[in-house]
Amino acid sequence: MKNPKTGVYLNNSSGVLNSSHIESADFITLDNMSFGYNFKMPQGSGFSKIRLYCAGNNLFYITKYKGVDPNPRYGDIEGGNNPLIPGIDRRNTWFRTRSVTFGANIVF
Q: pTM score, two decimals?
């Protein structure tokens, strides 16, 4: 198949590079958040301090990107750090995990 404007063949066997699979990976993310509250305990209550907290990682993305993760990776799946491949989505790439942690620190 030829490009009508340039006359260049568009098949992969011709060695011509194209950007048909390139898309914008602009994104906004909430990557890390934590908050907690310290309770002041009255004398004689049995506790000197109580702290409740919540922390989260990789909480959400706002993006129109259709791939696995809009955040570029700088290493290849085979473990090498190839500087020529940042941002390439591999089909055998795992999603970044999302985690939420709740906890309590109690001092007697």
A: 0.60
